[in-house]
């Protein structure tokens, strides 16, 4: 098995990054520095013309988009417990995963990169403020899920939902949201990050879990 993961520190690529570490399989991690526009380099665009992370290379196959990558890894590494194997538990997990990806994640994009949606500065400020308020409500929904974790979001084995919850909660700090005000999710994130395999991904990405800074 020849696996390569292209990730950007702190991005949603942390989810497959931590899943690969948890699986115990050998893989090649390749960091992509977005602040240096490495995702726009000719070499990277040859791999993913959209210039996005993550990208998983599995032999001759290139897989993009986080949900597709997670489903690919789940099929290749069933022992990793990335998602529940079958039944209602799998359906519910996929429901939450796709919601995180198609609703919560894009809302944060409006906070972090409002310039993607308008070139008017006043409009950007309005978009950012409104999206931050909306994002807080979405994290509240994740908090309800975290309260039911036993001990993980999909049961006894840590998986993709825990990794995505950590990522989305961490981003909340950049939106002015103190993660400790969401105690169940904050406890889940810390517990997940402390797992030795996950800790390797955290160390490789040099992540600080709580990036919240109170307003002066």
What is the level 1 CATH name of the largest domain?
Answer: Mainly Alpha
What share of residues are in beta strands? 5-15%
Main sheet strand line-up = 2-1-3-4
* Overall spatial form: globular
Q: Please bin the fraction of helical residues.
A: 40-55%
Query: Which structural class fits the helix and strand makeup?
Result: alpha+beta
User: How is the main sheet built?
Assistant: 4 strands, mixed
Overall tally of domains = 2
Describe the 3D structure.
With 216 residues, the chain is an alpha+beta fold. It has helices spanning 14-23, 42-47, 66-76, 87-112, 121-147, 160-174, 183-193, 196-205, and strands at residues 3-7, 28-31, 55-58, 61-64. The chain has two domains: 3-80, Glutaredoxin, CATH 3.40.30.10; 87-195, Glutathione S-transferase Yfyf (Class Pi), Chain A, domain 2 (Up-down Bundle), CATH 1.20.1050. The protein has a four-stranded mixed sheet, covered by helices on one side. α5 crosses α6 (160-174). It is globular, with a radius of gyration of 17 Å. The N and C termini lie far apart (51 Å).
């Amino acid at each position: 098995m020849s696996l390569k993961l292209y990730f950007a520190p702190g991005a949603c690529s942390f989810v497959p990054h931590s899943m690969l570490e948890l699986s115990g399989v050998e893989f090649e991690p390749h960091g992509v520095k977005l602040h240096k526009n490495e995702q726009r380099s000719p070499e990277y665009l040859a791999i993913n013309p959209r210039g996005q992370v993550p990208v998983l290379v599995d032999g001759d196959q290139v897989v993009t988009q986080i949900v597709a990558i997670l489903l690919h890894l789940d099929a290749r590494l069933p022992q990793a417990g990335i998602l529940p194997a079958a039944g209602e538990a799998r359906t519910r997990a996929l429901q939450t995963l796709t919601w995180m990806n198609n609703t919560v994640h894009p809302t944060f994009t409006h906070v972090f990169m409002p310039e993607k949606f308008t070139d008017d500065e006043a409009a950007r400020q309005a978009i950012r403020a409104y999206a931050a308020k909306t994002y807080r409500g979405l994290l509240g929904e994740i908090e309800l899920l975290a309260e039911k974790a036993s001990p993980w979001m999909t049961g006894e084995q840590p998986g993709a939902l825990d990794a995505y919850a950590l990522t989305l909660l961490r981003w909340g700090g950049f939106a002015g949201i103190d993660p400790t005000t969401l105690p169940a999710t904050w406890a889940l994130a810390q517990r997940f990050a402390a797992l030795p395999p996950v800790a390797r991904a955290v160390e490789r990405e040099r992540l600080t879990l709580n990036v919240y800074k109170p307003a002066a």
